[in-house]
């Protein structure tokens, strides 16, 4: 809370813009994007294909730099951090559930989830203990020693969510979290976001699915490069 008793933003975008340039050809994908994410909030980002959803998610996660404006994470301008500080911020304060962010196939579920903690310098025993606890929390305690190839799509996604949450991030960024899942697995993943969103972290979820968007606290739509609040 700040002095006025308002919740501090975990993530804020100010006048965010992204132009892709290729020689003389420029494409303005995002323009003047303003956005504030509060602790525990769940936000859906929707928009037509090519409207800039992935571009926005990459900027929020510090995986890409804006052409204009800035992204503030806990008050820090991500673009101003050097690569090391940025990695640390990503590892300790953000969680990612992206399609290309695969679980490591040669490690089991417990080891995959423990990985961010080991990278942050936690001891092996402590990392294993916390990984087991969060896997239990997402209903995967019975699959600790299974490798990704031995898990169903829904189970893998729950392990990915556990890995995103294990270091206690302020914000989790998700890209089409139920993309390839059957309806039952998708429902489990959504219930988890509902539950964890209030208690543990804020979630930004890119989705094409109106049913997912309807479950989030807010829905933001990208239209012609601008982010609009949808009522
Ligand atoms: N590296 C790049 N260089 C040039 N143009 C790019 C680059 N990445 C994305 N674009 C363009 O920017 C626009 C937005 O792409 P983006 O992937 O952010 O859209 P999206 O809303 O996530 O789309 P989808 O829903 O289809 O995944 C598209 O027109 C795309 O062609």
Automatic annotation (TrEMBL):
SMART domains: AAA
An individual GO BP term: lipoprotein localization to outer membrane
Protein name, entry field: ATP-binding cassette domain-containing protein
Organism of origin: Parahaliea maris
PROSITE patterns: ABC_TRANSPORTER_1, ABC_TRANSPORTER_2
InterPro entries for the chain: AAA+_ATPase, ABC_transporter-like_ATP-bd, ABC_transporter-like_CS, ABC_transpr_LolD-like, MacB-like_ATP-bd, P-loop_NTPase
One Gene Ontology MF term: ATP hydrolysis activity
Gene3D superfamilies on file: P-loop containing nucleotide triphosphate hydrolases
């Amino acid at each position: 809370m700040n002095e006025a008793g308002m919740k501090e933003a975990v993530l804020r975008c100010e006048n965010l813009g992204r132009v892709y340039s290729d020689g003389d050809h420029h494409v303005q994908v995002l323009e003047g994007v303003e956005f504030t994410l509060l602790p525990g909030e769940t936000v859906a980002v929707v928009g037509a294909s090519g409207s800039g959803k992935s571009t926005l998610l990459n900027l929020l996660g510090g995986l890409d730099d804006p052409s204009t404006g800035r992204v503030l994470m806990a008050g820090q301008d991500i673009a101003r951090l050097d690569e090391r500080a940025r990695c640390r911020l990503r590892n300790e304060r953000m969680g990612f559930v992206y399609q290309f962010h695969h679980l490591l196939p040669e490690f089991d579920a417990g080891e995959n989830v423990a990985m961010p903690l080991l990278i942050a310098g936690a001891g092996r025993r402590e990392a294993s203990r916390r990984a087991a606890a969060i896997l239990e929390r997402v209903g995967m305690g019975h699959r600790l020693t299974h490798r990704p190839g031995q898990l169903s799509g829904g189970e893998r996604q729950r392990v990915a969510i556990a890995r995103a949450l294990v270091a206690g991030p302020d914000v989790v960024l998700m890209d089409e979290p139920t993309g390839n899942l059957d309806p039952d697995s998708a429902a489990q993943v959504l219930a988890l976001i509902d539950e964890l969103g209030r208690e543990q972290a804020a979630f930004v979820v890119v989705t094409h699915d109106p049913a997912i968007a309807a479950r989030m606290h807010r829905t933001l739509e990208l239209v012609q490069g601008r982010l609009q609040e949808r009522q």
